[in-house]
Amino acid sequence: MSATKEIWILGAAGRIGRGVAVDLSARGFKLVLLGRDRARLLELAGTIGGEPRIVVAGSVEAIAAEIAQSRPAVVLNAIGPFLETALPIVRACPQGTHYVDIANELFAITALLGLHDKAVATGQCLVTGAGFGLLAAESVVMKVCEGKPPAARVRVDTVPRIDGSDIIGPTVAATVVEGFATGGRRYEDGQLVRASIGGDAEHLTMPDGSTAVTGAAPSGELEAAQRASGAPFVVAASSEAPTRPMARVVVSALAKLVTWRVLRDVLQDRLARLRLDPPAKKSEFSWARARVQWPDGDIREGWLRTSDGMVFTVKVASEVAARLASGGSRPGAYTPGALFGPELAEAAGGQFVLDRAAT
């Protein structure tokens, strides 16, 4: 184990980081709040109590140096884009220090999962994707596939609801811009292949009667669903993907521009302040759906219902960090469902709606 029992929260002054800090403080964990803005960190520290320590660091390099010196029990990373922050921070974690992030960029997820053998050798547990999109999709696939052989085809859809603010925010914006840069992906014959962002559009009617349109997106749900199901054909879609023809034209144009770092930063900043269009018939819940087909032609569908997507992400990240700090893990690199099973989604407040035959 590490030299201290501290849980470090990177990006503690942000919306997710703040929520995690409040939750973990209430559970009695010793926290270190790290961010760029000392005033905001001090305000948060005064709000949650428990005398958390404050660390101000303005770059990934500075964050990594602080972590390497202090040997925390757990590092919770809420700073995107995770394709840029995750690996340097993981490499800085001393032997025995565990790591969790809320990433959902496809290649950030696969890069961290690629460290499995190294994490086993160093006694570390690395968990990536501890948030609404990935865990919601992954867990409902796991539930639908329980007791079944490997699937033939899977489609997962996520429809988040965000209370209090419909602004996209910097972390989600970083994920979206990274998606522009890398382009769409899907699984065909067991291989990742290029696909159109916003393609495979589908009109969904959720179990509560609300509706939404989802389109393909290069998200972490794609990798998690493939691993959970064993299916060679997988599509991951979201209500946040651009499905209208003009929006898809704009995304195609942006994909050529965001290879330039300056333009990428400008776009990310602008996007973070945009507001999301609500679903056609807005639900009071966030939803994830899995539609699974097996080689014998059997098709099943399942749903996971949660509250606000941000609130669910806070609960998932907090629960994972708490379990890691308490010794409830094993060495290696995992998605949250792969490590803790679909019951983690229920522990975070989700409810499964299963046993729905699909046509």
Report the average pLDDT across residues. Answer: 88
Termini separation: 50 Å
Low-confidence stretches: none
Q: What is Rg?
A: 19 Å
Instruction: Give the percentage of residues in beta strands.
Output: 15-25%
Strand order of the largest sheet: 3-2-1-4-5-6-15
Assign a percent range to the helix content.
Answer: 40-55%
Number of helices: 14
Q: Return the string of H and E elements.
A: EHEHEHEHEHHEHEHEEEEHEHHEEHEHHE
Q: SS-based structural class?
A: alpha/beta
Number of strands: 16
Main sheet specs: 7 strands, parallel
* Gross geometry: globular
CATH class of the largest domain: Alpha Beta
CATH architecture of the largest domain: 2-Layer Sandwich
Q: Kindly report the CATH topology of the largest domain.
A: Dihydrodipicolinate Reductase, domain 2
Outline the secondary-structure elements:
Layout lengths: L6 E4 L4 H12 L4 E5 L2 H11 L4 E4 L3 H11 L3 E4 L4 H11 L5 E4 L4 H8 L2 H7 L2 E3 L4 H13 L8 E7 L10 H13 L1 E5 L2 E5 L6 E4 L5 E6 L3 H10 L3 E6 L6 H13 L3 H12 L13 E8 L5 E8 L2 H17 L6 E3 L1 H5 L2 H5 L3 E7 L2
Parallel strand pairs: 1-2, 1-4, 2-3, 4-5, 5-6, 6-15, 7-12
Antiparallel strand pairs: 7-13, 8-9, 10-11, 11-12, 13-14, 14-16
Helix pairs in contact: 1-12, 3-4, 4-5, 5-9, 7-9, 8-10, 8-11
Tell me briefly what this model is:
The chain is an alpha/beta fold and 359 residues long.
Describe, in plain words, how this protein is organized in 3D.
- This protein is an alpha/beta fold.
- It has two domains: 7-131 and 311-344, Rossmann fold, CATH 3.40.50.720; 132-308 and 350-357, 2-Layer Sandwich (Dihydrodipicolinate Reductase, domain 2), CATH 3.30.360.
- The chain is built from 14 helices and 16 strands.
- It has helices at 15-26, 38-48, 60-70, 82-92, 106-113, 116-122, 132-144, 170-182, 220-229, 245-257, 261-272, 309-325, 336-340, 343-347; strands at 7-10, 31-35, 53-56, 74-77, 98-101, 125-127, 153-159, 184-188, 191-195, 202-205, 211-216, 233-238, 286-293, 299-306, 332-334, 351-357.
- A hairpin with a 5-residue loop joins strand 10 and strand 11.
- Helix 5 crosses helix 9 (220-229).
- It is globular.
